[in-house]
Amino acid sequence: MTNVFQLKIMNKIIPIFIAAVIGGGIFGLVLNVFGGFGDDFAANKQLSANIAQITTNPLATDWKQVSPPEIRAVSAVLTEITANGQYNVIWEKKAQQISPIASLTKLMTAVIAAEFYQQNQNITVTKRATEQLDAAGFLKIGERLNLENLLEVMLIESSNDAAFALTEPMGGPNGFVDLMNLKARDLGLNHSYFFNPSGLDPEDTNSPEEQINYSTANDLVILVQYITFEHPEIVKILSKKELALYLDNGQFHHNLQNTNELLGQIPNIIWGKTGTTDKAGGCLLLTIKGKSPGTYLVAVVLNSPDKFDDMKKIIDNYGL
């Protein structure tokens, strides 16, 4: 018998193939990957256009002109997003350069889980999930957690076991990661690609060396804006410094501690996500309250030897 989850997947995937036939190829397939959502499509089309704005607009002139921050990250950007969704680049350093992104990957993993699973869906933890490197989530084989619980474990603790567990209702990471890449194309993240749901380096997933998740600072700004407006549940989770995790049956699981050590330390930070691997170096993105009502800032550093120090230098430099 076809269950509710299977029907939900079918209702999203079938329009892909119809669009491909009518539209004449993969372009139609990608743009209609989440077919049937006209409003979302219009919003995503606008988001896709914004990547061009990020890469071509001059630096914002309504910010105090100061010397650029001296940071060691290979790539970085500080962008203001206005109340009407316009991007103003305040400062950037090789923001178009493709870099591995480590656990920043988990933002897209969260988006796919939130958009394809039922809100109250329970997911059973498998042996494969618990065997992930740097599991961190203290998950046990056979344990059942609902979607919200798994998202909390994955995002707050950057847990690789929770990231893998979230792929299990789709039969494992392969099909799930395909949806991550289709969503990336749909949003206009044209310099991003995913090979796994956690951001682990290839040697840690027994994959070929070239199969490493990558993106750019500019692409990540687009993803942050999408999450901010379309997925407040993800924002809410990542705004928590710590959280006592309880299962549906009322049983205490463990205390979650956010890997983002700047959260709560710097008052204007709204939410953010960390990532670190040997190949990616330190990665960090933050959203920060803007100076004008309705505005906020997105700061990203990639491939840094000290992601928190670099981010603090950016924040201090621009008086955030």
Report on the architecture of this protein.
This protein starts with a helix and ends with a helix. The chain is an alpha+beta fold. It has one domain: DD-peptidase/beta-lactamase superfamily (Beta-lactamase). A five-stranded antiparallel sheet has the order 2-1-11-10-9, sandwiched between helices. It has a two-stranded antiparallel ribbon with strand order 3-6. Strand 9 and strand 10 form a beta hairpin. Helix 3 runs antiparallel to helix 9.
What's a concise summary of this model?
The protein is α+β, with helices and mostly antiparallel strands. It is 39% helix and 19% strand.
How are the SSEs ordered, and which strands pair?
Elements: H1 4-23, H2 26-31, H3 38-56, E1 75-81, E2 87-93, E3 99-100, H4 106-116, E4 122-124, H5 127-130, E5 144-146, H6 147-157, H7 160-165, H8 173-187, E6 214-215, H9 217-230, H10 232-238, E7 242-246, E8 252-257, E9 269-277, E10 281-289, E11 296-304, H11 307-317
Antiparallel strand pairs: 1-2, 1-11, 3-6, 4-5, 7-8, 9-10, 10-11
Helix pairs in contact: 3-9, 4-6, 4-8
